Amino acid sequence: MVGSMKMEDVYIWDLNAKWLGITPFQLMENAGSGVARIIEERFGKGLKVAVFCGTGNNGGDGFVTARHLSFENDVTVFLIGDETKIRSEEAKLNWSILKNLEFVKIKILKDSSQVKKLSLEEFDVIVDALLGAGTRGEPREPIRSAIEKINEYHGKAKIVSIDLPSGYPSKVRVKCDFAVTFQWDKEEYRDFDRVIVKIGYPRELYHLIGPAHVKFAFKRKGEHKGQNGKILIIGGSENYYGAPYLAGKASSYLVDLVYLLTPERVARRIDDPNLIVREVPGDNLRGEHIELALELSERVDAVVIGPGIGTKEETKEFVLEFIKKVEKPMVIDADGLKIIAEDLDALKNRKFVLTPHAGEFKLLFGVKPGGSLVEKSKLVKEKAEEINGVILLKGAYDIVSDGKVWLYNKTGNRGMTTGGTGDVLAGVVGSFLALGNEPLRAASAGAFLTGFSGDLVYEEKGEAFTALDVANKIPLALKRILEL
Ligand SMILES: NC(=O)C1=CN([C@@H]2O[C@H](COP(=O)(O)OP(=O)(O)OC[C@H]3O[C@@H](n4cnc5c(N)ncnc54)[C@H](O)[C@@H]3O)[C@@H](O)[C@H]2O)[C@H](O)CC1
Ligand SMILES: [K+]
């Protein structure tokens, strides 16, 4: 069991499950049949059952439960609300199926006066499918009266809530004997007895990075200029100018302001109006440029350090000093990784994502990742825990870990081995940091979005494409993901 889950995780798994092709119809069928099975296991058959349904998908689960219990039990469905309010396709389908059955009694109660008049003496079991995860605020009428009506029979009939006691977490909630909840034990659902049933999610969903990670990471802090993330890219040297440019280009699609700190000869080669280039004299960044770099870092939300920065002695001093002093979350990539490999202590109390490929991983940790996905993820998790930060190990499947959980990303293709896609990735991960995400989310979303952009380029061009193609495909990739 992977500990307790946050609701946000559940929404992410839901969305990624859909991306895998698992439909809400399957989930609702499995949910409702799971509840029916638990009821029959616990209370037998030949029961008089009342199923109280709302007009959301919690109610939809109730429709399915009623169908599964019908005929062998005497089932009455109470729809609390107007049937035209049933809105999801899956709930509508299950409602119409129910209405076609002869052996299910249906009562539609639209207002609370009708509900208050109800007597439920005859029922052995009352199923509460009024409200579930979609509850917003205190229960409103007529649902409220239905909750109060059910509670009149607490201790007389068996009361089984679907997913959670309706009304929860407000104090007006169903006093159920237990709730049947789905697939994982949400930490928000703690103070009631519950039975967990699986409803079709593959367990590996906990480890799969999907489009939902990008959707949640691409939150826009505010709609005003400059509130949507500012990033500083530090890189370039006498023999590399493309790397910092690619990282900056990728970032320019995701955040509002992109600063680029680079030696003058690199700066002269970059004439992209989206990038605010700050140059230092000479061929390489070195110790005397620390102050400028730190001063610039104060203006941004996140930093990417390493693309094309080179490994001259003078540059090593600059990189290590900067990493120790910077106050912002950062991505350390490429030559930056080679430099800190000599002094991992520089990472103490820092907030960072390392983005090594297998060779850089070996340089950092003395062991080359190999074997199965699980073996590699175990190694990445172990090293991430050791350095107390996030590692994104690039590969056919990228592996991301913060030392507590591990995730893998399947997007991307063979064409991505072209030089520079690592720089694009570093810029994308840095941008998600700049948008306010924790390192694990930033790395996960960055891996998915970069690979997905590469997949869109592959669809268009086959394997012969450049890293700049990948960077320029980010807007379309993001659009596709946000539409899912
Ligand atoms: N992925 C899963 O885990 C699955 C969940 N299923 C079930 O779906 C519900 C969540 O369904 P949703 O439609 O989002 O919301 P609800 O049915 O819980 O409620 C929405 C419904 O109720 C009205 N409403 C909201 N707040 C209130 C209120 N305070 N008072 C009165 N009415 C309220 C709102 O207008 C809607 O009409 C989840 O709990 C599971 O049971 C899937 O079926 C299986 C997979
Ligand atoms: K419920």
UniProtKB/TrEMBL annotation:
Pfam families: Carb_kinase (PF01256), YjeF_N (PF03853). One of its GO terms (molecular function) is ATP binding. InterPro entries: Carbohydrate_kinase_pred_CS (IPR017953), CARKD (IPR000631), Nnr (IPR030677), Ribokinase-like (IPR029056), YjeF_N_dom (IPR004443), YjeF_N_dom_sf (IPR036652). The keyword Nucleus does not apply. CDD domains: YXKO-related. Residues 5-207 form the YjeF N-terminal domain. It comes from the Archaea. GO terms for biological process: metabolite repair; nicotinamide nucleotide metabolic process. AMP binds at G422. Residues 208-481 form the YjeF C-terminal domain. Its cofactor is K(+); Mg(2+). Keywords: ATP-binding, Isomerase, Lyase, Metal-binding, Multifunctional enzyme, NAD, NADP, Nucleotide-binding, Potassium. It catalyses: (6S)-NADHX + ADP = AMP + phosphate + NADH + H(+); (6R)-NADHX = (6S)-NADHX; (6R)-NADPHX = (6S)-NADPHX; (6S)-NADPHX + ADP = AMP + phosphate + NADPH + H(+). Binds 1 potassium ion per subunit. (6S)-NADPHX binds at residues 57-61, 132-138, 163, 243, 308, 357, 423. K(+) binds at N58, D128, S166. Its EC number is 4.2.1.136, 5.1.99.6. Bifunctional enzyme that catalyzes the epimerization of the S- and R-forms of NAD(P)HX and the dehydration of the S-form of NAD(P)HX at the expense of ADP, which is converted to AMP. This allows the repair of both epimers of NAD(P)HX, a damaged form of NAD(P)H that is a result of enzymatic or heat-dependent hydration. Homotetramer. HAMAP family: NADHX_dehydratase (MF_01965), NADHX_epimerase (MF_01966). In the C-terminal section; belongs to the NnrD/CARKD family. This is Bifunctional NAD(P)H-hydrate repair enzyme. It comes from Pyrococcus abyssi (strain GE5 / Orsay).
